[in-house]
What we know:
It contains 19 helices and 26 strands.
Amino acid sequence: MAKLVYNIRDVLTFRDLLDGSAELYGDLCAFTFREGGSVREITYNEAYSDIRAFAAYLNSLGLNGKKVGVMGKNGYPWALTYLAVTCGVGVIVPIDRELKPDELQHVVDHSELSAIVHLPDVKEKVEGLAGDFLRLNTASLKEYIATGETLRAMGDTSYENHHVDPHEMSILLYTSGTTGLAKGVMLSQYNICSNIMNVLRRISVGPEDRVLSILPLHHTYECMAGFLAPFYAGASIAYNDSLRRLTEDFKLFSPTVLIAVPLVLETLRNNIIKRYGKIKGGNALLAVQRCVSDEARALNPDAGRKIFSTVANAFGGRLTRILSGAALLPEHVHRDMERFGFKVYIGYGLTETSPVCLMHNDFYRAPDDIGYPIVGGQAKIVDPDENGVGELAYRGANVMLGYYKNPEETAKVLRDGWFHTGDLARIKENGAFQITGRKKSMIVTQNGKKIFPEELEFYLAQSDVVAECMVYGEEGEHDVIVTAAVFPNYPVIEERLAGEGIHPGDEHFDSRVREIITKAVKEVNEKLPSFRRIMKICIRKTEFVKTTTRKIKRTDENRGE
Length: 561
């Protein structure tokens, strides 16, 4: 792997980041979004002024040094609140707007919030919470900022006087894991600043770029990669207010960078293929263009954009880089998006690592791994088995301070300076890391054989008749039964069965669906040793219950038919 790194400026805190970006990029567009029937832009200088004014207003309410939550859909008010609190008030607590009432109450109570700044879309949820804390609706944000500006004009220096320790807790994030109640992850500003700097040492982002923000900002992945890193680099951040308008927003904002999760990328890829299928000779044309792109990109990395120019135009004409995280990206999706002319970077990390700890970069992007540790980070495999598979551990400046009010859980994952991720991985011959599964979800047979559900799920996901799947072990009479719960890709199957004259609701429809899924499972099993094969199939009529990052919850509610 190439050793080249990009030069970046050093920052210890978000205030350093904010001051530097305002000075370097003052009149450039920092944020752009729909407002009413038009598009509004906020410059770096305007954001700088708003942040300091809003911080002054919050401090006037007695919130200096306190914990302040922010909750609601993506947008400038969310970003403004985050930087105002962290730069000049206290500790920010980003809250998932999709939490159920009991989960939301847990976050409020456990974090000991003094206030929640909320967007209008979650007004009822916030008002329904128990607790003596301030509720500030961003519908009145202009008034808050105006009051803060008046206070500063009268001599208020609370923003400037607020002490920011780069190594103390400044961000309290509650994980939305696939099991159990969320834990509070304590991050310092330097945790995240170091992550920003070390990611940008290997991925070039600058003032000429525009990032389209589509993932929830309360997740540290989007917050770092889709907000703080672009803001540091002088890029423009455009907000998508609904995935239903994503196609419109590609054309409206013409982004150069997209932060996404595999589900979004697979949907985008499938939509492209569907468009080809709707034109005469389209499937044959697609096959030819794929082959030509594979050959041409070996000589010219940008050839795919010219070959698939209609695809490039559909994405606004400027999109060149896609960063994928939160889950494993199917190889066929990665390969196709690269063929279409996009550089696809796979990143790996957790909330506990601020979040990125391993990733692809401008010099390396393989579809079957998660790349290398970021600059300044180290990774290793703990207790590898005969196949080199063991728990992935990581250490670096971006590792969390610990879990809030939970020293026992902290001690379980932070040992001898290493964060133990709970994920299983191996190292390829070239030194890149591959994720094989989750330690907690691993299936162990009676004779000690290890089976990684995520690996089987990955293979199944390659089939166009499988929309979603979850593999798990059931206790059998003599041994564990490897079981696959499958939510079929009904649109694809229905189209296929229509040629047989079979339609949903017909007597034989469900049995034919099972036959098709069984065949897909059989094809996977043929590639595997006998002990790793799927022995039982459960067909679901509905999608799996998921976390807000679209990860399937490994709970009993997702098992069975």
